[in-house]
Amino acid sequence: MSDDFEKCAIVVDKELPAGLAMNTVAALSLSVGKFVDGIVGDDVKDADGRLHTGITAIPLPVLKADASELRDIVVRAAGATDVFLVDFTAVAQSSRSYDEYTRRTAEVPTGELPYIGVAVCGSKAAVNRLTGSLPLYR
């Protein structure tokens, strides 16, 4: 994916218990880290010369939404060429293997999948267009 992205936002279902919400953010973050070139900055040295592994180099707010808002983001992003989206569903979170996740997901249409989180990356304008009205996850 492009290294021209200026912003990513992770949106989590506001009804998830804290542990499942953290799991959702972690899973989405790993996928973004793998597929979005340049999102992780270079290693940084401290005053003692010790290296600290690079972290995200662009804003990455964690927001909250309800299930219908999450589905709307996925559907709207599907037609957008200026964003990269990773979605995470209750199917994925409840599956015991990737094979089970793959099989179960193949049985459900996009609009009916139970989305519990999404990560959206792109220009600030594109990410804000899809997530700008959502509150921070607190």
TrEMBL record:
Parts forming coiled coils: none
InterPro entries: DUF2000 (IPR018988), Pep_tRNA_hydro_II_dom_sf (IPR023476), UCP033763 (IPR017021)
Pfam families xref list: DUF2000 (PF09391)
Entry-linked Gene3D superfamilies: Bit1
Top-level taxonomic group: Bacteria
Transmembrane annotation, as ranges: none
Name used for this protein in its record: DUF2000 domain-containing protein
Organism: Kitasatospora herbaricolor
Classification lineage: Bacteria, Bacillati, Actinomycetota, Actinomycetes, Kitasatosporales
